[in-house]
Write a structure and sequence with these properties.
Strand content: 15-25%
Structural class: alpha/beta
Radius of gyration: 18 Å
Oligomer: single chain
Number of strands: 11
Length: about 230
C-alpha cells in the first residue's frame, strides 16, 4: 500500500523560510523528521511554490519533485485542492499511485512519538475513510451568525461539566490520514471519519500564535539540553 506524507507550504509563509529557526533547525525539519520516523509512510513530499523552500525541504530529507502552481498557492485555495494536485502530479509524472495521504503541517513541530503510525493504524483497522487528531473540549461553545444571533453548539444545556458529552476540536494539521480516492475528488476528508484525542499538552502547540511559538521554542530548547 502506497502511503505518503504531504507537507503543504505556501511560498510566502514567513515561518517556512530557511532562515526561520526553532531550536537551531528550520521549522520544516521537525515535521519532515516525524514523517520519516513513521514505519508506514513510504514517501515524504513537500508541495510548495517557492524554490528556496523546496530546496530546504530536500536538505531536510524530504522530496520536492515539482513546484506547485501559483494559482494553487493563494490563501483562499482549499487544502483539498492542494493535496489533489500533488497526488495527480505524482501519478502523471512518475506513474506513482497513492493509496493513503497523510497530511502534516509545519506549524505543529511537536508530535508524540508513534502518533502518525497510530492514526494510520486506526484508519486501516477500523476501515475508516479518514482519521485526524483532535483535542477534547469540555467548555460550552456558542456560534454567532452573520446577524449577530447566538446559538449554543451541541445540546449540552446547563449540565455539570463532568456530565457533558465532550466536543472535539480538530487539530488536523498535526496528523490527518485519508484514502486517496477522496483526495482525488478534492476532498480533505472522507465520509466515515475517526479521531485520535491528543493527551499531551505539548502536542497541541501551534506556532501560528505567539503563545504557541513561545512554547515551541521552550520545549525544543529543553529537549536540546537533555
Amino acid at each position: 500500500m502506497n502511503t505518503i506524507a504531504i507537507i503543504p507550504i505556501r511560498g510566502d509563509d514567513p515561518q517556512a523560510q530557511p532562515d526561520f529557526r526553532l531550536g537551531g533547525r528550520p521549522l520544516l525539519a521537525y515535521t519532515v523528521v516525524a514523517a520519516k520516523a513513521s514505519s508506514l509512510i513510504e514517501r515524504v513530499i513537500v508541495t510548495t511554490d517557492n524554490p528556496e523552500i523546496a530546496q530546504a525541504a530536500k536538505d531536510c530529507g524530504a522530496e520536492a519533485p515539482f513546484l506547485r502552481p501559483s494559482e494553487l498557492s493563494r490563501p483562499d485555495v482549499p487544502l483539498g485542492q492542494v493535496l489533489k494536485h500533488c497526488v495527480e502530479r505524482l501519478e502523471a509524472e512518475e506513474g506513482y499511485r497513492t493509496d493513503i495521504v497523510t497530511l502534516l503541517e509545519i506549524t505543529h513541530p511537536i508530535r508524540e512519538e508513534g502518533l502518525i503510525d497510530q492514526v494510520l493504524e486506526v484508519l486501516l483497522e477500523q476501515e475508516l475513510d479518514s482519521v485526524f487528531t483532535a483535542v477534547e473540549e469540555g467548555q460550552t461553545f456558542w456560534r454567532m451568525d452573520r446577524y449577530g444571533a447566538l446559538a449554543r453548539v451541541g445540546d449540552q444545556e446547563d449540565l455539570p461539566r463532568q456530565n457533558r458529552e465532550p466536543l472535539y476540536r480538530e487539530m488536523g494539521g498535526i496528523v490527518t490520514a485519508t484514502h486517496a480516492g477522496f483526495i482525488k475528488e478534492g476532498k480533505r476528508l472522507g465520509k466515515k471519519v475517526g479521531l485520535i484525542p491528543l493527551r499531551s499538552l505539548s502536542a497541541r502547540v501551534d506556532t501560528r500564535d505567539e503563545v504557541g511559538l513561545f512554547l515551541a521554542r521552550h520545549l525544543t530548547l529543553a529537549a536540546a539540553l537533555r
